[in-house]
Amino acid sequence: MSDPTPACPRNTAEFVDLTTHIGGIALDNYLFNASGPLCTSEAELTQLGHSATAAIMTKSCTILPREGNAEPRYQNLPLGALQSMGLPNLGYQAYLAMLPRLKLLNKPIVVSISGFSVTDNQTMVSAFQQSDADLIEVNFSCPNIEGKPQLGYDFEQTDQALKVLCQLGDKPIGLKLPPYFDFSHFSAMADIIKQYPISFITCINSVGNTLVIDAETESAIIKPKGGFGGLCGDYIKPIGLANVRAFSTLLPENIDIIGVGGIKNGTDAFEYLLAGASAVQVATCYEKEGVECFSRISNELATLMARKGYKTIAEVKGQLKTL
Ligand code: SIN
Fold first, then answer.
1. Residue 13: its pLDDT value, please?
2. Residue spans per domain, the chain
């Protein structure tokens, strides 16, 4: 009789299960695009639908279409990018109209909204609650609109906004947060979130209002806001990891955390998983590499997990060791 034991041990990447869920919505992979680059037009969103991204995430929309800030507004840097896009988008009604077509691509759809007032956000959340969207991410953290502070840094206004936005329907709603740098801020925000039926949080948006100077030209490198812009990529990974970790220790398990910030390979994705992320979003690397990044990073993550003997996302999630 032949030996039923397989000749090859089952610790290869193909046996690693990267499925996960956010707000009760099943994702067939741990990675998808962030609301940021290359997710504004229907063509870009359709291309995402044909890629290995786990979900199709839209650019943060506003009530009216926007051209965004003046150029140059995005500059690559050795370890990431500096950007002040200013929410260029087609206006929320264009995204509402394209949802039935995007739905045919058979991936969960996450709409991102970024209104300039509670009333704007109320209008958009109400509309998307009645739509084909699977998840709604409300962006409280765009640093790039002149005269509009990031709502996530104003705890009282965040509380007031959530009172309104969390009673508009049953679709899972989440918040995209700015980076926090102090434990008192992690706890203050977690205490607010716990009072509402928030299904997920996304940590972090770019580190806002940073300044990069070109010594040769003696100039700022982007035009908006006198050169102040959101820092992205490798530079911000330790900040993203810290925010995911802090919130994962402060929030109940039923609030999922999506990690963003400097994810460009399987090791970065694995680190966010250890910190407590249920999924991650890719922004700067997607901008630089295009949709191929999703399958590459997923394969790298599966290979790393297989080498360590892990087979599921749940086995690793939040298992960071401290010294
Ligand atoms: C932008 O469009 O300015 C970036 C979006 C964001 O930071 O939320």
1. 87
2. 12-308
Give the residues across from 211 on adjacent strands: 228
Angle subtended at Cα 152 by Cα 204 and Cα 258, rounded to the nearest 5 degrees: 30
Report the alpha-carbon distance of residue 94 to residue 113 in Å, rounded. Answer: 13
**Cβ atoms < 10 Å from Cβ of 209:** 14
State the fold for domain 12-308: TIM Barrel (3.20.20)
pLDDT given for residue 12 in this prediction: 85
Which residues, including other chains, have CB under 8 Å from residue 267's CB and lie 6 or more apart?
300, 304
Confidence of residue 8 (pLDDT cuts 50, 70, 90): very low
Contacts of 322 (CB under 8 A, 6+ apart): none
Average pLDDT of the chain is: 96
* pTM passes above 0.90: yes
The answer to whether the beta carbons of residues 151 and 128 sit under 8 Å apart is: no
Q: Does the annotation count 8 as an active-site position?
A: no
Number of the ligand 1 atom closest to the C-alpha atom of 230: 7
The angle formed by the CA atoms of residues 321, 261 and 181, to the nearest 5 degrees, is 70
Q: Is the pLDDT of residue 30 over 70?
A: yes
Stretch 224-245: mean pLDDT = 98
Low-confidence winner among 10-19, 128-137, 263-272 (lowest mean pLDDT): 10-19
Atom of ligand 1 nearest to the CA of 114: 8
pLDDT tens, position by position, 139-150? 999 999 999 999
Ligand 1 pocket by Cβ (under 6 Å): 60, 84-87, 139, 141-144, 205-206, 230
Residue type, 170: D
Residue-wise over 23-41: b if at least 16 C-beta within 10 A, else e?
Answer: bebebebbbbbbbbbbbbe
Q: From the alpha carbon of 85, which atom of ligand 1 is closest?
A: 3
Question: Encoding tokens for residue 292?
Answer: 């191929």
Rounded distance from Cα 91 to ligand 1 centre (Å): 14
Ligand 1 centre distance from Cα of residue 229 (Å): 10
